[in-house]
Design brief:
Helices cover 14% and strands 43% of the residues. It is built from two helices and seven strands, in the order αββββββαβ.
């Protein structure tokens, strides 16, 4: 799926003013009410209301994005941009001591129904 700017904006709009959970397969990253979002340069900025304070959570632009109704899936897997397996292996062996929490993973934005 193409993750062009218009798609990303359209996919995030239904989550506005909703309680959301941002998580990976391994852990919850953020939880709060999505007040507003911005897509600037290579980042998506989410402004979440957490305990009556607005905090910004910034994520890099995903390689792929998929809308599944009440869930957005942001794909940061290296395999989604590198089709050559040799190149994928070389990248995995690079120094990743300061890697992000979302490096080579899937991030889910879910509406919190509780």
């Amino acid at each position: 799926m193409n993750s062009c700017l218009e798609n990303v904006v359209d996919y995030f709009k239904p989550f506005l003013l909703s309680d959301v959970i941002i998580k990976t397969d391994k852990k919850n990253l953020k939880k709060g009410k999505l007040k507003i979002f911005q897509v600037k340069q290579h980042y998506i900025r989410l402004f979440l209301e957490i305990d009556e304070k607005t905090k910004m959570y910034e994520m890099p632009y995903p390689y792929k994005i998929k809308n599944e109704g009440e869930q957005l899936t942001l794909n940061y897997h290296l395999s989604s941009i590198f089709q050559n397996t040799d190149l994928q292996m070389k990248i995995k062996f690079l120094d990743n001591s300061s890697k992000s929490k979302i490096y080579d993973s899937m991030v889910y934005v879910l509406k919190n129904t509780v």
